[in-house]
Design brief:
Elements (H helix, E strand, L loop, with lengths): L17 H28 L8 H13 L24
Keywords: Membrane, Transmembrane, Transmembrane helix
Length: 90
């Protein structure tokens, strides 16, 4: 079964050149990126705030307070001095 071909001609202003096609692709890509970014922002904005457990924080503070910290940091080991030999270049 053959499809009849119609000879419909569009005016020149409806035909898109190569540059206009690229522009439309860039605009559609930009709009998709815009929608994805603001969709992500709205998803993260709608998340509930984390609950603060004061008992757990107090337990963690007690654990940290029990860690023994040295008053003075240990002294670094003395540097080993290597002898320097003087050589005359003739």
């Amino acid at each position: 079964m053959s499809i009849p071909k119609s000879k419909v001609s569009f005016p020149r202003e409806f035909k898109k050149s190569g540059i206009e096609q690229i522009d439309w692709k860039l605009v559609s890509f930009g709009s998709v990126v815009f929608i994805i970014i603001f969709g992500g922002i709205s998803i993260f904005a709608s998340l509930p705030e984390p609950e603060v457990d004061l008992e757990r924080i107090a337990e963690m503070q007690k654990r940290v307070a029990q860690i023994a910290m040295p008053d003075v940091p240990p002294t670094p080991p003395p540097e080993i001095e290597t002898p320097v030999e003087e050589v005359e270049i003739v």
